[in-house]
Amino acid sequence: SANGGGLGLTAAELMVNLNAVVVIGLLTYMLLTGSLFEVINTSIESPLLLGYLTLIGVGLSTAVLAYTQLIKSASSVVAVAVGTLRKVATVVLSYIVFPKPLLPIHIWSGMLVLAG
To answer: 88 with 111: CB under 8 angstroms?
Structure first.
């Protein structure tokens, strides 16, 4: 259901719960394999990397929350349409920012993406 599977959870609460379970599982796995200490040492040696990863995490979680809210406020069909248009805009921007030849195959593949 729209309220977190009938548990009365908001989208944000559901995300926090899911992410908490994933973090616990990931930390357990990393602890058992020993890779957790590598990550900690790398983070200490390169704090800028930790900053970038934090920004990526915040950006991705904001995007997921926005997408979830779009589904709730509009519908899943609108959310899929917005996601497809976002992909089209990304490809168009890549041709503008990084100029490259536009071949007929690119146009055909773009039309296939738009068709679904």
So the answer is: no
